[in-house]
Write a structure and sequence with these properties.
The chain is mainly alpha-helical.
């Protein structure tokens, strides 16, 4: 069948592949710090050992990238769900059983990645959020999707403010206030010790020792799920809304929408992102203070606006950014390769370069590595329909080997 005669949702939307490729670069830029720093230090803010150019680069990444690209990728995940559903309906093909199996296999991939390779995995959390989305929002009307999204994105901020106000209200009782803050400081001290121990394991430990550390990291991550899962679910719903309203299906017909959000996102998002990075600089997120709550508020709102600005800019410029599409088409493979390559490079069971790469060099190393991924992805997609991980995922979902080669 002539692809030009297909309905828009039946065609492959190249601009979505471009967006995935761009999001993949941003995710690597953010994750790179955590390939060479213990993951549990994520709530401790900036590495206190940074100074000069290293500190400046770190601050720029936090302001412009950290927390801005997982929303973009999450929106694309939600968009992918909506497209798959519409395509299945158009073909009158079964969907829910296949999609639930798709999520279950993704959960297995994520668990294996988290425990065997790198604890900062997002696939498992995506799978869990996908199950929640299917369970609770399968039939939600389009007009309500973005409203529910804002509720979930705001939930961690609301909880932080509740904690901060609860502690602030105890100032009238100095003994109680001192006792509560003392407990938080004790927990913070214990966290610093766990981070130091994790650094030693990553730097010089065996692969088995690192698996044990990743188990501890996974407990830490999943134990704080309320700060990770609701926002991701919210961004899933925004992605669905963008497809259901046709904006990401026919972007040429909605250029005014994207131009407006490009402007709004930058004008509102950039100042808030800078403010949030400043307020949270060196702050311990695990201690809910008004300053931390304000910083998280600025960061969350700034991330929402900036991620929409990035989505809008790339969508409007997708024709000039087509070189990113092959990397986006095999985003799962490239994401897993990033973890495999860099944990092997930095960890003691690999090259053991832990702590030896200055923070200021991260931007250049990431850009160079991603450029290689783009080239290799382009060469691969000339001969194959899917990336290796995508092929395995699809074959397991459909319970049969999928055709791999093009032509």
């Amino acid at each position: 069948m002539d692809p030009n005669k297909l309905a828009p949702t039946q065609q492959r939307l190249d601009h979505l592949d471009v967006l995935r490729g761009f999001a993949l670069l941003g995710i690597l830029m953010v994750n790179f710090e955590w390939f060479t720093r213990p993951l549990q230090a994520i709530v401790l803010g900036v590495d206190p050992g940074l100074g000069g150019l290293d500190a400046a680069v770190d601050w720029l990444i936090r302001a412009l990238a950290e927390g801005k690209f997982y929303p973009l990728f999450s929106m694309l995940f939600g968009a992918g769900f909506a497209l798959m559903f519409e395509r299945a309906e158009a073909r009158q093909a079964p969907f829910w059983g296949l999609y639930l199996r798709r999520l279950l296999i993704l959960l297995v991939f994520g668990a294996a990645h988290m425990l065997l390779v790198w604890a900062g995995d997002i696939l498992l959390i995506y799978a869990l959020c996908g199950f929640v989305m299917v369970l609770l929002f399968r039939k939600t009307p389009t007009g309500r999707l973005w409203k529910w999204a804002l509720v979930f994105i705001a939930l961690p901020v609301a909880l932080m403010w509740l904690g901060a106000l609860a502690i602030w209200s105890t100032q009238g009782d100095p003994d109680l206030h001192a006792s509560i803050m003392g407990e938080f400081e004790t927990e913070a001290s214990a966290l610093h010790q766990r981070v130091a121990a994790a650094a030693e394991i990553h730097a010089a430990g065996s692969w088995v020792e690192n698996v044990g550390q990743r188990l501890d990291d996974a407990r830490f991550t999943l134990g704080n799920f309320v700060f990770w899962v609701p926002p991701i679910l919210g961004y899933f719903l925004i992605g669905r809304w963008l497809i259901a309203t046709g904006r990401l299906v026919r972007p040429d017909q909605h250029r005014l929408f994207f131009r407006r959000w490009r402007s709004r996102g930058l004008i509102i998002g950039l100042p808030l992102a800078v403010l949030g990075a400043g307020l949270l600089h060196g702050a311990n997120w695990s201690i809910p203070t008004p300053s931390v709550a304000l910083g998280l508020t600025a960061t969350t709102v700034g991330a929402l606006f900036l991620s929409l600005a990035y989505l809008s800019m790339v969508t409007l410029g997708s024709d000039r950014l087509r070189f990113l599409a092959p990397a986006g088409r095999m985003a799962l493979t490239n994401y897993l390769l990033q973890s495999l390559f860099w944990t092997w490079t930095f960890y003691g069971h690999g090259l053991g370069l832990w702590g030896q790469l200055p923070r200021a060099s991260h931007v250049f190393v990431v850009l160079a590595f991603f450029a290689v991924q783009v080239v290799l992805s382009t060469l691969w997609m000339r001969h194959f329909r899917f990336g290796p991980a995508e092929w395995l995922w699809r074959s397991l979902v459909y319970l049969r080997m999928q055709p791999m080669r093009t032509g």
